[in-house]
Amino acid sequence: TFYNPLFRVLIMADNTLENHQFQTRKFDSDNAEQLRVIGAGLGRTGTSSLKIALEKLGFGPCHHMTELFSKPRQSIIFTQALDGCETDWHELMKGYRSAVDIPIAIFYKELHQAFPKAKFILTVRDSDEKWYESFKNTIGPICTDIFYFIAVYPIRNLRLQCIFTRKLVKKWIHDYGEVGPKVYGLHNAQVIKEIKKELLIFNVKEGWEPLCQFLDVPIPKDTPFPNVNDAKHMKRLIFGIRAIGWTTWALIIVVIAVGIKFISGFVDFI
Fold first, then answer.
1. Which of 228, 234, 236, 235 is nearest to 204 (CA)?
2. What's the mean pLDDT when you consider all of the chain?
3. How many domains are there within the chain?
4. What transmembrane ranges does the database entry give (predicted)?
5. What confidence tens digit (pLDDT) does each residue in 162-172 have?
6. Buried b or exposed e, range 172-197, using 16+ CB within 10 angstroms
7. Which one-letter DSSP state was computed for residue 83?
8. In angstroms, rounded to a whole number, what is the distance separating the alpha carbons of residues 80 and 254?
9. Range of the domain at 66
């Protein structure tokens, strides 16, 4: 697999999840407690903002979809879990005090069984349609666009993440009949039915009060609730990833062309 260091630079430069406004504690992942808070809300429901909030409140490190960028082994394990393979959730989640976003939200039932004392947060948007509009205009290409998959294929971390998300889409089509607004509504209904206790239905617009009350922690003073990962930011990130992917393909083609020319010249020489 061709390694492109530009990808690492992009992710590091674009990491807005820990900016100066929302400084969080530095965590020793190896000594972190087991999961205490689990987010069951789908992506594009304020999960990035919730991640920052949870870490600010002391429930970090918090697992998020962005972890898969740098931890390809997790992409493999989550993909196998979608196929029904047995998963050691305690081992997989070792080092995290909380977890939100996809893929965590997809496995809320399994995590509920593995961590029965954990509290669950279902992040929501104003409507099914608003969720789907945000989904298809931001992270949708990661899940459905074949040209995105081709672009990132040479970059192992992104390829494995994309394999997971494409398999997830197939699961949604199997379970819900489509990838559309009703995915959001049916998923939320199932979460509410399954998690009868210790569940907070939360819109990030509500701010600190309901979240802190649910987690039984004080409200941070003079600190606005995080507001990150808007649609424009996600579009820029995905555009950058596409660009790096196609650049990688171009480099591969150049290397192959130079190699062929060198071999041809060597053959002519002898």
1. 228
2. 86
3. 1
4. 243-267
5. 999 999 999 99
6. beeeeeebbbebbbebbeebeeebee
7. T
8. 35
9. 5-269
